[in-house]
User: What shape does this take?
Amino acid sequence: MKAVLAFPAEKKKDLTPILEADPYAPDSFARAGYKIRDGATLGEKADTIYLYISADEHFIKKAKEKLKPLMREIHKDEEERVRKKIEEEEEAAEGGFGAIFG
Assistant: This one.
């Protein structure tokens, strides 16, 4: 399952320690895998940062609960757009590695 969460840019200083906490714990963000992108780099709102998570449904539910005080509401169409952009970035990066290592 994949989810995109949105945060006001000024909350990044509060968000980072939560994401980086105890990276070896079974339910850590580091183990689940996540990506952070600034809205401006994605052609979205410059005052927003996006957290992309690819994990099981249980982890995503826990993550949303844990991060709720920092999050801002994200509409379904915005979430879909951002998810697609991040996945396209990843595919392009993988394609670049393929070209390098052929």
Remarks:
- The chain has a mean pLDDT of 91.
- The beta strands are 2-8, 34-38, 48-54.
- Helices lie at 12-20, 29-32, 57-67, 76-101.
- Residues 2-101 form one domain.
